[in-house]
């Protein structure tokens, strides 16, 4: 099977589910090509949704943010982990129950919207603690949550993302704050609702009536694993947290169906490749193992790997993944041609 989709990738799917941070924007700036990609999907009447672990904004606020960036988005297209967490609490608690909220005002608003009462202190006898990302969350918030959970409150986390993307590189995410409580309490949350749990993906597909959705994300450990758990194909874009180097060491549960540098891969067959297909190293080959495809030649000799030839960098990445995923270490790859050096540089794989 070819490593390049025939025609436009998006034509094979009836719904595109986007992550936001690292895919559509970084904090408050659109990623190059994202506005154009969404506009083209709308022009082609392709259904789309946004599923985000970020619990610091309500769907209407997310849609407003996107519109301000030039992305035509509606609140009903946005699914957030704060909405999912509030819905999960409403299923488990009686109306009017107190919930200690650790996170942004958006999370408090969603808790309030489902008929529960947000509180801030453990001495207010909360029935549950819900924990989501908020830039102002501090030690006092975590201390109150710790006391409440030890007293028997249900502990729900909106997500466990260790980091969140930013123009300065990855920053601590909600998962880092959850880890602080996990260490203090010596236990895990009772429930995690965000990706990689499949709930957000499943809800998006049901709302759209989609039978063949495609999930697009920048994180292997949340977006891609969540899509796999939901039984969906996925596209990893290299515009956010996960890198080509991360892809080479990805376990089977976090391996995407496709990879592209950015959202151009949805439409341009030359800007995306399918992974897990094509040549693999011959296990019974004596001496250095050599695999070739798409103009590239990869030579593997123990801990040494050399890439030579010429072609597109994504095709080189597909070849490297084929080797790495079959048990051959390729994290340190030596360029054997000028084109190989350029491709490895584009992929961030230069030593």
TrEMBL record:
<dbReference type="InterPro" id="IPR006357">
    <property type="entry name" value="HAD-SF_hydro_IIA"/>
</dbReference>
<dbReference type="GO" id="GO:0016791">
    <property type="term" value="F:phosphatase activity"/>
</dbReference>
<dbReference type="GO" id="GO:0005737">
    <property type="term" value="C:cytoplasm"/>
</dbReference>
<dbReference type="InterPro" id="IPR041065">
    <property type="entry name" value="GNAT-like"/>
</dbReference>
<dbReference type="Pfam" id="PF18407">
    <property type="entry name" value="GNAT_like"/>
</dbReference>
<dbReference type="Pfam" id="PF13344">
    <property type="entry name" value="Hydrolase_6"/>
</dbReference>
<keyword id="KW-0378">Hydrolase</keyword>
<protein>
    <submittedName>
        <fullName>HAD superfamily hydrolase (TIGR01450 family)</fullName>
    </submittedName>
</protein>
<dbReference type="InterPro" id="IPR023214">
    <property type="entry name" value="HAD_sf"/>
</dbReference>
<feature type="domain" description="GCN5-related N-acetyltransferase-like">
    <location>
        <begin position="294"/>
        <end position="349"/>
    </location>
</feature>
<dbReference type="InterPro" id="IPR036412">
    <property type="entry name" value="HAD-like_sf"/>
</dbReference>
<dbReference type="Pfam" id="PF13242">
    <property type="entry name" value="Hydrolase_like"/>
</dbReference>
């Amino acid at each position: 099977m070819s490593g390049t989709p025939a025609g436009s990738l998006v034509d094979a799917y009836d719904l595109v589910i986007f992550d936001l941070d690292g895919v559509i924007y970084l904090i408050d700036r659109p990623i190059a090509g994202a506005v154009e990609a969404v506009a083209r999907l709308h022009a082609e009447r392709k259904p789309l949704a946004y599923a985000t672990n970020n619990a610091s904004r309500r769907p209407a606020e997310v849609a407003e943010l996107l519109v301000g960036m030039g992305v035509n988005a509606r609140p009903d297209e946005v699914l957030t982990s704060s909405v999912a967490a509030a819905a999960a609490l409403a299923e488990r608690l009686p109306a009017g129950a107190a919930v200690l909220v650790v996170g942004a005002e958006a999370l408090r608003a969603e808790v309030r919207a489902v008929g529960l009462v947000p509180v801030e202190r453990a001495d207010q006898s909360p029935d549950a603690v819900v924990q989501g990302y908020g830039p102002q969350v501090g030690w006092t918030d975590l201390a109150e949550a710790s006391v409440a959970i030890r007293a028997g409150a249900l502990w729900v986390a909106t997500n466990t993302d260790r980091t969140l993307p930013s123009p300065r590189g990855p920053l601590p995410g909600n998962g880092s704050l959850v880890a602080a409580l996990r260490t203090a309490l010596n236990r895990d949350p009772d429930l995690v609702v965000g990706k990689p749990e499949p709930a957000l993906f499943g809800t998006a597909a049901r709302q759209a009536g989609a039978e063949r959705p495609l999930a697009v994300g920048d994180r292997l450990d949340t977006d891609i694993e969540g899509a796999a758990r939901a039984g969906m194909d996925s596209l990893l874009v290299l515009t956010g947290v996960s890198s080509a180097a991360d892809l080479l060491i990805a376990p089977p549960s976090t391996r995407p169906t496709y990879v592209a540098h950015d959202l151009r891969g949805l439409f341009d067959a030359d800007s995306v490749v399918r992974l897990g297909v094509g040549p693999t190293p011959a296990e019974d080959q004596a001496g250095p193992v050599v695999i070739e495809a798409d103009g590239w030649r990869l030579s593997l000799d123990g801990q040494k790997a050399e890439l030579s030839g010429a072609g597109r960098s994504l095709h080189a990445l597909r070849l490297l993944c084929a080797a790495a995923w079959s048990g051959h270490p390729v994290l340190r790859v030596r360029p054997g041609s000028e084109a190989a050096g350029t491709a490895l540089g584009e992929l961030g794989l230069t030593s």
